[in-house]
Amino acid sequence: MRSHTTDSMQLEVAIVGAGPVGLLLAGDLAAAGTRTVVWESSPAPSAMPKANGIVGHAAVELEQRGLLSGTGLAVLSPSRFAFGPLSLDLGSDANNPLHILPIPQRRLEELLEARAVAHGARIYRGHTPPRPDHPGR
Q1: What is the rounded CA–CA span in Å between residue 8 and residue 16?
Q2: Number of domains present in the structure of the chain
Q3: How many helices (H) and strands (E) would you count in the chain?
Q4: Which residue from 114, 128, 119, 110 is spatially nearest to 34, judged by alpha carbons?
Q5: 22-79 pLDDT tens trace
Q6: What pLDDT digit, counting tens, does each position of 124-136 carry?
Q7: Cα dihedral 87/88/91/92 (nearest 10)
Q8: Which helix (H) or strand (E) covers residue 72, if one does?
Q9: How far apart are CA 36 and CA 12, in angstroms?
Q10: pTM here?
Q11: Are residues 41 and 57 in the same domain?
């Protein structure tokens, strides 16, 4: 693996894009001790409303990473789900397949970025990644 240096930091992984997926990956890699940087071309996070929640096992994964600790947010697992005129009984045990985390995307990105930075990832907004030198060009 070839590594690059930025701001006197030897990098192992570079991520392009500071959306939820890029920030989650940066946080996970940094938590595992991988030197990570995120380049985001937008100078600031978008103020435009986007998604308003996470459903399914992804919500549980975020909770298990400690992302919701101290936020007042919690994953909900309703035992009943209205599906048109039908009401589905999902049960109330751990096998309940429906998990809901009501959270605006902007707030989710804030939490993911804070976690990534706390573990040592660097986030560069308003930047594009440096282009590697190509010999012979």
Answers
A1: 19
A2: 2
A3: 3, 9
A4: 119
A5: 999 999 999 999 999 999 999 998 888 888 999 888 999 999 999 999 999 999 888 7
A6: 999 887 777 655 4
A7: -50
A8: none
A9: 6
A10: 0.79
A11: no
